Amino acid sequence: MTRKNKQKSPSQADKPAPAEKKKRVGPMTYFRQVYLEGKKVTWTSRNETIVSTIMVLIMCVIAAVFFWALDWTINTGIQFLLGLGA
Q1: DSSP structure string for 3-43
Q2: Within-domain flag for 8
Q3: Cα–Cα distance between 17 and 5 in angstroms, integer?
């Protein structure tokens, strides 16, 4: 006598409960909630914003110079290698 396996098939597996529907709110309630959440945010000072912006600009210039130099070096190397065959 064999025992039957009483495991559920994938189609009969426990399905998750349906998600609760969120309560709809009107536009005024929505904007009031957005305003209140905005008041909770810790905003950076003007000085921190200026310093961060300057640092980003400096890093962009450094990256641009680096990639220009790399491109120039590779271009010069390829031109040299192609000139050897002529």
Answers
A1: PPP-PPPGGGSPPPPPPPPPPP--HHHHHHHHHHHHHHS-P
A2: no
A3: 26
CA distance 58 to 16: 52
Domain presence at residue 47: yes
- How many structural domains are present in the chain? 1
Q: Which domain holds residue 74?
A: 27-84
SS3 62: helix
Per-residue pLDDT of the chain (86 residues; tens, 9 = 90+): 556 655 655 555 567 777 777 778 888 999 999 999 999 999 899 999 999 999 999 999 999 999 999 999 999 999 999 998 76
Tokens of 2: 């064999």
| pTM strictly above 0.85 | no
39 located within any domain: yes
